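#struct-help
A.M.: can someone run this one for me? Single chain, 274 residues.
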Amino acid sequence: MRLRSLALASLLGWVCGSASWGQPPTTAAGQASIPLGGPPSSGMQLLQPPELVDPQMTSPSMQDTTAVPTGRNGPIGHEIYFFTGPTIPAGAGVLGQYLNTGWLVEGGGRSLFFNPAQDRALTLRFGITFQENQGHDAAPTYSLFGMAVRTRSLYRYSGVAALGREWFRHGEGPWGEGRNTLRFGFDFGARWGGQRINLDIVDDPVSNTEYRHYHDIFGGAVVGAHGGFDIPFRSWVWNAGFRVEYGYNWSNMLRGQNSNIHDINLLLMTGFRY
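D.P.: on it. C-alpha cells below:
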C-alpha cells in the first residue's frame, strides 16, 4: 500500500512538471519573458545600430556651402573690397603734366558667379572712388578765362561699375574648402562723378584775385588686373593682394585747355567674402 502511494505521487509530479515545461519562464513581477532563441513579441522594440555619418558632411565648410545662394551654374559669393594706393597722373593736358602723384581710395562690393568646378567666377562690382592730386609749386602757368593760373590741387570722387573674371588656384566655394588659395583676375568698367580744381591765380588783370576753384563732372573708363590670395575662416574668407589699374578720364572743366587726364594706379587691395 505504501509502495502504491509513492508510485502515484511520482506519477503526479512528472505530469505537473511536463505541463509547466512548455510555458515561458516568468519574471519576479509575474510577467512572461522571451525565451532564448525565440522571436521577439510585437510589443518589443529592437535596438537599431547608429547611423553612419560622413565626417565631411559635418565640417564647417560643408555646412556653410549648403547655405549659400546658388545660380544656374554654381554658387554665388559676395565680397566687400577696399583699394588704396598712389595714383599717377599722365597725359598731354595741363592736368596730366602739372599734377604730382596723389592718392586713391576705393571701397565697394563685388558678386562672384562661380562655375560648377568653383575654380573660376564672373564678377560684377560697384564702388565709390576718391582721388587727390596736388600741383607743382613751380609748375608753368597756363591761360584760363584771360588769367594766368597754376593748378594747386585736384579732387575727384566718382562711382564705378565693372565686369570681370576671376581664377582660383584651388577649386573653392564662396566660403572656401578649408584651404588657402591663390587668385588672380581682371575687370573693366566705367567711372562717373564730380571733381573740384583749386587754382592759384598768378595774374588776374580784371579782378586781381589770388585763388579760385571750379567744379565739374567727369566720366572715365578703367581697366585693371590683380593677384592675391584667399584665407578661409569658419564662415568667411579674407583676401588681400595687389592691383594695377589704368584709367582715362575726360571733362571740359578748363575751358580752352585739355582737361583730360590719364591715371596709373598702383593699389593694395583687401576684403572679405561671405
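A.M.: thanks! Confidence is low (pLDDT under 50) at residues 18-22, 55-66.
D.P.: also worth noting: The longest helix spans residues 2-21.
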